[in-house]
Amino acid sequence: MANLKLSSLDIRQLLNSYEAKLRQLQFEADQTKKMIRDLKAAIPAIEQVESAQLAVFDQEISALADVTALAEEQKPAKPAKTTKRVGRPATKGKKPRTPKAKAAAPEATTTEATTTEATTTEATAPAEPKVKKTRKTKKAADKSGRAAGYRLSEYDQYIFDALQATGKAMINSEFLTYIEESKAAQGLPVDAEEISTMVTRSLQKLANRRTDIAKVPYEGRGMAYALPEWLNPQKELKAKYKR
């Protein structure tokens, strides 16, 4: 690098660069000097404004202090606080407590002794013999000989109504005729097959399982049916109820 040599052209360009920088530095120096002069010239005016503002601020502070002092002077003095202890109000008409008498203790002891004596007497008394109670159940029967305790169905009632209406022992076909005529008279639908089935069930229930009606022989095939009170002691149908 030490042996590097500049040509005349390089030297001229370098001089031009230095001169340009020097001019820039001179311009900046001149501008800086001008700015300094302007700032110095502005200081007196700024100080004057600040002094005026400070004077106004001082006046406001003084006025506020005067107002506060005047308010304190005009404020009425506070009354002195009196600390008075409020006592518990006395109860009117309250009687002084009287100690409870301990005279009840002997009475309690006497009662306990009496209870103990009664318990001892009960323990020594002979036990009463237990009497075994027996209950007899009796089936109640109504006028038609039906056993109480169950509800009759529609066709059960038809059977009893037919026997009471005719006053004679009846066979199966006669029950069917009576029920069909009763339903027709009441304006009810008549179904011969249904009536036959229901009558057969009712007769089996009343005569076989419940014995609310009795089976009796008659001249023909099968059995007739009658009320139990229509039978004599020999379980035979009385003459006036025969068909």
Helix content: 40-55%
CATH level-two architecture of the domain at 154-241 = Orthogonal Bundle
Q: Estimate the mean pLDDT confidence.
A: 78
Number of strands: 2
Strand content: under 5%
- Helix and strand succession? HHHHHEE
N- to C-terminal distance = 167 Å
> Looking at the chains present, what oligomeric state does this protein adopt?
single chain
Instruction: Give the uncertain stretches in residue-range form.
Output: 101-111, 118-126, 131-145
Strand order of the largest sheet: 1-2
Number of helices: 5
Briefly, what is this?
This protein has helices at 8-74, 104-124, 154-166, 172-185, 192-209, and strands at residues 214-217, 223-226.
Model description:
This protein is elongated. About 14% of the residues have low confidence. It contains five helices and two strands. The longest helix is centred in the N-terminal third of the chain and has 67 residues. Helix 4 crosses helix 5. Among the domains are: 58 residues; 88 residues, Arc Repressor Mutant, subunit A. A two-stranded antiparallel sheet has the order 1-2. By secondary structure, the protein is mainly α.
Features:
243 residues; mainly alpha; two-stranded antiparallel ribbon; 2 strands; 3% strand
Chart the SSEs and their pairings.
Layout lengths: L7 H67 L29 H21 L29 H13 L5 H14 L6 H18 L4 E4 L5 E4 L17
Antiparallel strand pairs: 1-2
